[in-house]
Amino acid sequence: MRSFKRFYIEITNVCNISCSFCPPTIRKKRFMSVDDFTNILKKIDKVTTYLYFHVKGEPLLHPEIGQLLDLSHEKGFKVNLTTNGSNISEMSDLLLTKPALRQISFSLQSIEVYSDNEAKEKYLKAVLEFVKKAIMKTNMTIELRLWNINLEEIQCKQLDAVNAESQNETITSIETNPHNIFTNSGKAKGNTNNNTFRIIEEELNLPFVLNENIMKAKGVKISDRVYLSQSQVFEWPDMNVDPISTTGFCYGLRNQIAVLVDGTVIPCCLDSDGVISLGNIFESTISDILESNRAKDIYNGFSNRRAIEPLCQRCGYRSRFESD
User: How confident is the model at residue 220, as a pLDDT?
Assistant: First the structure.
């Protein structure tokens, strides 16, 4: 049977904040029961080793997150968590004792929901305090995500700078307003991460200055088992917009698959409302789901660089795989 590098289990679709880059789901809010989670683990133990506890929702809100991590460890799974980090101070002691955790990714672009500089800095320092403890006390890897780059705006600013220089004009600094050291708009500005970088440098005592390097937008290792991942803003695929393309490639059903909180199986982690339902894991085996005509059509379509599903045709994220 096919194996997956990433098996997403949405343990909850409930979130405690509302970020501009993450549209709310239309599905009923719920938390996965321990029994349902255990049932899923039994059904997928032959197809993956790596679990990802999200599609939508904030996994650290789950009241039984500790038990879910323990069950994963008992069954030999390695868990990757993606969190907004808003309640990391309360969850720190629990997470530091869970050997199932392979990696925690912090979506630091969530900083936009905090209204003032003091709150933003407090949020970042709480995350980085956990990072320091995790590196000292565990073997987990930490990813600090800043997926908030607006390349179009950055390119415009660079062009303005070049034009000013060519005309022997004084180039005005594009540093943030000193009275608002963090950009607080829905769409990230080209300089939005400068002060986030400054705090990371100070809190982790880095021996170098972090450069945005925004045109490359690649991840960099900043210390032992700590990585900074920078990327541009992406739009979640939406059936209410026009198709982008019917051609292209995606790793859905190839390297990854996902189960929503109600058991609905979907091809990838970007189908946030279960538009491409392949069946329900509580009612079918994973083998039967993968052998369904719809699943095979999706897989074979992308094997031939064709997006079969209407939602896939509206997904811009898969353009990142065009060279694969």
Answer: 83
Is residue 6 within 8 A of residue 256, CB to CB? The reply is yes
User: For residue 68, how many C-alpha atoms fall within 13 Å in the half-sphere facing its CB?
Assistant: 28
d(CA 207, CA 150) in angstroms, rounded, equals: 28
What span, in angstroms and rounded, lies between the C-alpha atoms of 164 and 172? 9
Residue 115 inside a domain? The answer is yes
Note down the domain range covering 104. Answer: 6-151+182-321
Residue 223's CATH number: 3.20.20.70
Is the full-model pTM beyond 0.70?
yes
Three-state SS string across 85-113, please?
CCCHHHHHHHHCCCCCEEEEEEEHHHHHH
Give the total number of structural domains in the chain: 1
Find all residues with CB under 8 Å of 311, minimum gap 6, and list them: 237, 239, 271, 275, 276
- pLDDT by 10-residue block (mean), the chain, 324 residues: 93 94 91 99 97 96 99 98 97 98 96 91 97 98 88 53 49 35 42 83 89 56 91 85 94 97 97 96 97 98 96 88 64
Asked whether residue 160 is domain-assigned, the answer is no
Q: How many CB atoms lie within 10 A of CB 76?
A: 10
User: Could you give the CA distance from residue 136 to residue 159 in angstroms, rounded to a whole number?
Assistant: 44
